[in-house]
Amino acid sequence: MPNAVMLDAESLGADINLTAIRDLVSHLEVYQQSTAEQASERLSDADIAIVNKVVLNAETLSTLPKLKLICVLATGLNNIDLDTAKAQNIIVKNVTAYGTASVSQHTLMLMLTLANRLPRYQADIARGEWQRSDFFCLQAHSTLQLSNKHLVMVGQGELGSEVARLAEAFGMKVTFAARPGNESNDKRPSLDDLLPTADIISLHCPLNETTKHLINRTRLANAKSSLLLVNCARGGIIDEEAALEALRAGKIGGLAVDVLPTEPPKEGHPLLTALAEGEALNLIVTPHNAWITPEARQNIVALTADNIKQWQTEASGLSAN
Protein backbone atom coordinates (compact mmCIF):
# COMPACT_ATOMS: atom_id res chain seq x y z
CA MET A 1 0.00 0.00 0.00
CA PRO A 2 1.21 3.53 -0.71
CA ASN A 3 2.64 5.97 1.80
CA ALA A 4 0.78 9.30 2.06
CA VAL A 5 1.58 12.69 3.57
CA MET A 6 -0.94 15.46 4.26
CA LEU A 7 0.79 18.84 4.37
CA ASP A 8 -1.88 21.25 5.64
CA ALA A 9 -4.53 19.32 7.56
CA GLU A 10 -5.41 22.42 9.57
CA SER A 11 -7.29 23.70 6.52
CA LEU A 12 -9.84 20.91 7.07
CA GLY A 13 -10.26 21.51 10.80
CA ALA A 14 -9.60 19.31 13.81
CA ASP A 15 -13.13 17.88 13.82
CA ILE A 16 -12.78 16.06 10.48
CA ASN A 17 -12.34 12.28 10.39
CA LEU A 18 -9.54 11.07 8.10
CA THR A 19 -10.30 7.34 8.44
CA ALA A 20 -11.49 7.02 4.83
CA ILE A 21 -8.01 8.04 3.66
CA ARG A 22 -6.06 6.16 6.34
CA ASP A 23 -7.77 2.90 5.34
CA LEU A 24 -6.33 3.18 1.81
CA VAL A 25 -2.66 3.75 2.63
CA SER A 26 0.06 2.01 4.59
CA HIS A 27 0.71 5.17 6.59
CA LEU A 28 -0.70 8.69 6.61
CA GLU A 29 1.64 11.32 8.02
CA VAL A 30 -0.33 14.41 8.96
CA TYR A 31 1.14 17.90 9.28
CA GLN A 32 -1.11 20.75 10.36
CA GLN A 33 0.78 23.34 8.31
CA SER A 34 3.72 23.26 5.93
CA THR A 35 5.66 25.87 4.03
CA ALA A 36 6.69 25.36 0.44
CA GLU A 37 10.25 24.94 1.71
CA GLN A 38 9.22 22.17 4.14
CA ALA A 39 7.30 20.27 1.47
CA SER A 40 10.38 18.68 -0.13
CA GLU A 41 11.61 17.11 3.10
CA ARG A 42 8.19 16.01 4.30
CA LEU A 43 7.27 14.42 0.96
CA SER A 44 10.64 12.76 0.37
CA ASP A 45 9.30 9.25 1.06
CA ALA A 46 5.70 9.83 -0.05
CA ASP A 47 3.87 8.11 -2.88
CA ILE A 48 0.88 10.40 -2.34
CA ALA A 49 0.92 14.10 -1.44
CA ILE A 50 -2.31 15.50 -0.01
CA VAL A 51 -2.43 19.29 -0.01
CA ASN A 52 -4.88 22.14 0.07
CA LYS A 53 -3.00 25.39 -0.48
CA VAL A 54 0.66 24.39 -0.08
CA VAL A 55 2.56 25.30 -3.24
CA LEU A 56 4.19 22.41 -5.10
CA ASN A 57 6.25 24.14 -7.76
CA ALA A 58 8.72 22.79 -10.29
CA GLU A 59 11.66 23.11 -7.90
CA THR A 60 9.88 21.13 -5.18
CA LEU A 61 8.52 18.45 -7.50
CA SER A 62 11.94 17.89 -9.04
CA THR A 63 13.19 16.69 -5.64
CA LEU A 64 10.44 14.06 -5.32
CA PRO A 65 11.16 11.16 -7.72
CA LYS A 66 9.04 8.74 -5.65
CA LEU A 67 5.87 10.86 -5.77
CA LYS A 68 3.11 9.34 -7.91
CA LEU A 69 -0.10 11.15 -6.93
CA ILE A 70 -1.06 14.62 -5.72
CA CYS A 71 -4.50 14.93 -4.16
CA VAL A 72 -5.64 18.53 -3.83
CA LEU A 73 -8.23 19.14 -1.10
CA ALA A 74 -9.92 21.82 -3.20
CA THR A 75 -11.14 22.52 -6.71
CA GLY A 76 -8.46 25.00 -7.76
CA LEU A 77 -5.08 23.69 -8.93
CA ASN A 78 -3.18 26.96 -9.17
CA ASN A 79 -0.77 25.91 -6.38
CA ILE A 80 0.47 22.90 -8.36
CA ASP A 81 2.93 23.11 -11.27
CA LEU A 82 0.86 20.91 -13.58
CA ASP A 83 3.39 20.89 -16.42
CA THR A 84 6.16 19.60 -14.18
CA ALA A 85 3.83 17.04 -12.61
CA LYS A 86 2.90 15.75 -16.05
CA ALA A 87 6.53 15.59 -17.12
CA GLN A 88 7.31 13.48 -14.04
CA ASN A 89 4.27 11.23 -14.59
CA ILE A 90 2.67 12.45 -11.37
CA ILE A 91 -1.13 12.22 -11.44
CA VAL A 92 -2.96 15.27 -10.02
CA LYS A 93 -6.53 14.97 -8.76
CA ASN A 94 -8.80 17.59 -7.21
CA VAL A 95 -12.27 17.59 -5.63
CA THR A 96 -15.37 19.31 -6.96
CA ALA A 97 -18.95 19.93 -5.82
CA TYR A 98 -18.08 19.11 -2.20
CA GLY A 99 -19.59 22.31 -0.82
CA THR A 100 -22.53 23.08 -3.09
CA ALA A 101 -25.06 23.10 -0.25
CA SER A 102 -22.74 25.03 2.04
CA VAL A 103 -21.74 27.75 -0.43
CA SER A 104 -25.23 28.20 -1.85
CA GLN A 105 -26.56 28.61 1.70
CA HIS A 106 -23.89 31.24 2.38
CA THR A 107 -24.70 33.04 -0.86
CA LEU A 108 -28.38 33.29 0.05
CA MET A 109 -27.42 34.48 3.53
CA LEU A 110 -25.44 37.33 2.00
CA MET A 111 -28.32 38.26 -0.31
CA LEU A 112 -30.80 38.26 2.57
CA THR A 113 -28.49 40.22 4.85
CA LEU A 114 -27.91 42.90 2.22
CA ALA A 115 -31.58 43.02 1.25
CA ASN A 116 -32.59 43.63 4.87
CA ARG A 117 -29.78 46.16 5.42
CA LEU A 118 -28.59 44.22 8.44
CA PRO A 119 -25.14 45.87 8.59
CA ARG A 120 -26.78 49.30 8.81
CA TYR A 121 -29.40 48.35 11.38
CA GLN A 122 -26.90 46.49 13.56
CA ALA A 123 -24.71 49.59 13.60
CA ASP A 124 -27.72 51.76 14.47
CA ILE A 125 -28.62 49.53 17.41
CA ALA A 126 -25.01 49.48 18.64
CA ARG A 127 -25.09 53.30 18.65
CA GLY A 128 -28.32 53.36 20.65
CA GLU A 129 -30.56 54.60 17.83
CA TRP A 130 -33.38 52.17 18.64
CA GLN A 131 -33.23 52.92 22.33
CA ARG A 132 -33.62 56.64 21.65
CA SER A 133 -36.33 56.19 19.02
CA ASP A 134 -39.75 57.82 19.47
CA PHE A 135 -41.26 54.95 17.47
CA PHE A 136 -41.35 51.18 18.10
CA CYS A 137 -39.16 50.36 15.08
CA LEU A 138 -36.40 51.86 12.96
CA GLN A 139 -37.02 52.55 9.27
CA ALA A 140 -33.99 54.62 8.36
CA HIS A 141 -32.74 52.23 5.67
CA SER A 142 -35.03 50.99 2.92
CA THR A 143 -35.09 47.19 2.71
CA LEU A 144 -35.62 45.04 -0.36
CA GLN A 145 -38.23 42.29 -0.71
CA LEU A 146 -36.65 39.52 -2.77
CA SER A 147 -39.90 38.23 -4.23
CA ASN A 148 -40.29 39.31 -7.88
CA LYS A 149 -36.81 40.85 -7.93
CA HIS A 150 -34.43 40.12 -10.82
CA LEU A 151 -31.39 38.03 -9.91
CA VAL A 152 -28.68 37.92 -12.57
CA MET A 153 -26.28 35.00 -12.23
CA VAL A 154 -22.84 34.72 -13.80
CA GLY A 155 -21.94 31.02 -13.82
CA GLN A 156 -24.41 28.19 -14.45
CA GLY A 157 -22.50 25.26 -13.01
CA GLU A 158 -23.68 23.08 -10.16
CA LEU A 159 -23.27 25.84 -7.58
CA GLY A 160 -24.87 28.58 -9.67
CA SER A 161 -27.77 26.30 -10.50
CA GLU A 162 -28.36 25.50 -6.82
CA VAL A 163 -28.29 29.19 -5.87
CA ALA A 164 -30.84 29.82 -8.63
CA ARG A 165 -33.08 27.06 -7.26
CA LEU A 166 -33.00 28.56 -3.78
CA ALA A 167 -33.57 32.07 -5.11
CA GLU A 168 -36.62 30.90 -7.05
CA ALA A 169 -38.02 29.53 -3.79
CA PHE A 170 -38.03 33.15 -2.59
CA GLY A 171 -39.97 34.12 -5.70
CA MET A 172 -37.04 35.73 -7.48
CA LYS A 173 -36.82 35.95 -11.26
CA VAL A 174 -33.49 34.37 -12.22
CA THR A 175 -31.56 34.96 -15.44
CA PHE A 176 -28.19 33.42 -16.26
CA ALA A 177 -25.84 35.69 -18.18
CA ALA A 178 -23.84 34.48 -21.17
CA ARG A 179 -20.38 33.20 -20.39
CA PRO A 180 -18.04 36.23 -20.30
CA GLY A 181 -15.94 36.39 -23.45
CA ASN A 182 -18.21 33.99 -25.34
CA GLU A 183 -21.28 36.18 -25.78
CA SER A 184 -21.37 35.85 -29.57
CA ASN A 185 -21.71 32.05 -29.31
CA ASP A 186 -24.04 32.00 -26.32
CA LYS A 187 -27.82 32.16 -26.59
CA ARG A 188 -28.14 33.63 -23.11
CA PRO A 189 -28.25 37.43 -22.79
CA SER A 190 -25.00 39.22 -22.03
CA LEU A 191 -24.22 40.67 -18.63
CA ASP A 192 -24.21 44.15 -20.17
CA ASP A 193 -27.73 43.62 -21.52
CA LEU A 194 -28.96 42.37 -18.15
CA LEU A 195 -27.28 44.97 -15.94
CA PRO A 196 -29.88 47.77 -16.20
CA THR A 197 -32.67 45.52 -14.88
CA ALA A 198 -30.68 43.53 -12.31
CA ASP A 199 -31.68 43.90 -8.67
CA ILE A 200 -29.01 41.45 -7.53
CA ILE A 201 -25.92 40.05 -9.25
CA SER A 202 -24.39 36.84 -7.88
CA LEU A 203 -21.04 35.64 -9.21
CA HIS A 204 -20.23 31.93 -9.55
CA CYS A 205 -17.68 31.88 -12.38
CA PRO A 206 -13.93 31.15 -12.41
CA LEU A 207 -11.33 33.90 -12.30
CA ASN A 208 -9.44 34.19 -15.57
CA GLU A 209 -8.27 36.87 -17.99
CA THR A 210 -11.83 37.40 -19.21
CA THR A 211 -13.48 37.61 -15.79
CA LYS A 212 -10.86 39.66 -13.93
CA HIS A 213 -12.61 42.90 -12.92
CA LEU A 214 -15.72 41.71 -14.75
CA ILE A 215 -17.62 44.04 -12.43
CA ASN A 216 -15.84 47.33 -13.01
CA ARG A 217 -16.55 51.07 -12.95
CA THR A 218 -18.11 51.06 -16.41
CA ARG A 219 -20.55 48.28 -15.61
CA LEU A 220 -21.37 49.66 -12.18
CA ALA A 221 -22.26 52.98 -13.81
CA ASN A 222 -24.94 51.16 -15.83
CA ALA A 223 -26.46 49.38 -12.83
CA LYS A 224 -29.43 50.31 -10.68
CA SER A 225 -28.56 52.46 -7.69
CA SER A 226 -30.22 49.77 -5.55
CA LEU A 227 -28.16 46.88 -7.00
CA LEU A 228 -26.93 44.27 -4.52
CA LEU A 229 -23.66 42.63 -5.54
CA VAL A 230 -22.56 39.24 -4.14
CA ASN A 231 -19.29 37.40 -4.83
CA CYS A 232 -18.73 33.89 -3.47
CA ALA A 233 -16.59 32.86 -6.45
CA ARG A 234 -13.06 34.28 -6.61
CA GLY A 235 -11.46 37.51 -5.48
CA GLY A 236 -10.62 39.77 -8.39
CA ILE A 237 -13.82 39.22 -10.38
CA ILE A 238 -15.03 42.47 -8.83
CA ASP A 239 -12.93 45.61 -8.98
CA GLU A 240 -13.33 46.11 -5.24
CA GLU A 241 -12.10 49.70 -5.17
CA ALA A 242 -14.61 50.65 -7.88
CA ALA A 243 -17.41 48.80 -6.07
CA LEU A 244 -16.59 50.48 -2.76
CA GLU A 245 -16.51 53.85 -4.50
CA ALA A 246 -19.95 53.15 -6.01
CA LEU A 247 -21.32 52.00 -2.64
CA ARG A 248 -20.06 55.12 -0.88
CA ALA A 249 -21.61 57.30 -3.59
CA GLY A 250 -24.98 55.54 -3.40
CA LYS A 251 -24.62 54.21 -6.94
CA ILE A 252 -25.21 50.62 -5.75
CA GLY A 253 -27.22 49.41 -2.78
CA GLY A 254 -24.98 46.77 -1.22
CA LEU A 255 -21.81 44.71 -1.57
CA ALA A 256 -21.02 41.31 -0.03
CA VAL A 257 -17.91 39.24 -0.72
CA ASP A 258 -16.57 35.98 0.69
CA VAL A 259 -13.35 36.19 -1.32
CA LEU A 260 -10.56 38.70 -1.89
CA PRO A 261 -7.72 38.71 -4.46
CA THR A 262 -5.08 37.91 -1.82
CA GLU A 263 -5.91 35.61 1.10
CA PRO A 264 -5.31 36.20 3.88
CA PRO A 265 -5.64 39.84 2.83
CA LYS A 266 -3.00 42.45 3.49
CA GLU A 267 -3.50 45.21 6.01
CA GLY A 268 -5.08 48.22 4.37
CA HIS A 269 -7.41 46.45 1.94
CA PRO A 270 -10.05 49.12 1.22
CA LEU A 271 -13.06 46.95 2.08
CA LEU A 272 -11.55 45.88 5.39
CA THR A 273 -10.52 49.43 6.19
CA ALA A 274 -14.07 50.63 5.55
CA LEU A 275 -15.38 48.00 7.99
CA ALA A 276 -12.71 48.71 10.60
CA GLU A 277 -13.46 52.42 10.51
CA GLY A 278 -17.18 51.80 10.92
CA GLU A 279 -18.29 53.44 7.70
CA ALA A 280 -22.08 53.55 7.37
CA LEU A 281 -22.29 51.15 4.43
CA ASN A 282 -24.35 48.12 3.43
CA LEU A 283 -21.13 46.11 3.24
CA ILE A 284 -20.30 42.54 4.27
CA VAL A 285 -16.97 40.72 4.06
CA THR A 286 -16.75 37.10 5.20
CA PRO A 287 -13.35 35.34 5.48
CA HIS A 288 -13.60 32.82 2.62
CA ASN A 289 -15.66 30.54 4.84
CA ALA A 290 -18.71 29.85 2.69
CA TRP A 291 -17.43 26.28 2.27
CA ILE A 292 -16.60 25.38 5.87
CA THR A 293 -19.64 23.50 7.16
CA PRO A 294 -18.57 20.18 8.73
CA GLU A 295 -20.55 18.34 6.05
CA ALA A 296 -18.67 20.06 3.23
CA ARG A 297 -15.27 19.46 4.83
CA GLN A 298 -16.05 15.80 5.44
CA ASN A 299 -17.14 15.55 1.80
CA ILE A 300 -13.64 16.66 0.82
CA VAL A 301 -12.17 13.68 2.68
CA ALA A 302 -14.64 11.27 1.07
CA LEU A 303 -13.96 12.61 -2.42
CA THR A 304 -10.21 12.51 -1.83
CA ALA A 305 -10.51 8.88 -0.74
CA ASP A 306 -12.44 8.20 -3.96
CA ASN A 307 -9.61 9.82 -5.93
CA ILE A 308 -7.05 7.58 -4.23
CA LYS A 309 -9.17 4.48 -4.92
CA GLN A 310 -9.51 5.45 -8.58
CA TRP A 311 -5.77 5.98 -8.88
CA GLN A 312 -5.07 2.63 -7.21
CA THR A 313 -7.47 0.88 -9.58
CA GLU A 314 -5.90 2.53 -12.62
CA ALA A 315 -2.39 1.74 -11.37
CA SER A 316 -3.36 -1.92 -10.80
CA GLY A 317 -4.68 -2.13 -14.34
CA LEU A 318 -1.44 -0.78 -15.74
CA SER A 319 0.56 -3.24 -13.62
CA ALA A 320 -1.54 -6.15 -14.85
CA ASN A 321 -0.84 -5.15 -18.42
Automatic annotation (TrEMBL):
Classification via PROSITE patterns: D_2_HYDROXYACID_DH_2, D_2_HYDROXYACID_DH_3
Domain called D-isomer specific 2-hydroxyacid dehydrogenase catalytic: residue spans: 22-314
Ranges for domain D-isomer specific 2-hydroxyacid dehydrogenase NAD-binding: 108-290
The keyword NAD is annotated on this UniProt entry: yes
Molecular function (Gene Ontology), one example: NAD binding
Keywords assigned by UniProt, alphabetized: NAD, Oxidoreductase
SUPFAM superfamilies linked: Formate/glycerate dehydrogenase catalytic domain-like, NAD(P)-binding Rossmann-fold domains
Pfam hit, one: 2-Hacid_dh
Domain of life of the native organism: Bacteria
Similarity-based family: Belongs to the D-isomer specific 2-hydroxyacid dehydrogenase family.
Protein name per UniProt: D-2-hydroxyacid dehydrogenase
Source lineage: Bacteria, Pseudomonadati, Pseudomonadota, Gammaproteobacteria, Oceanospirillales
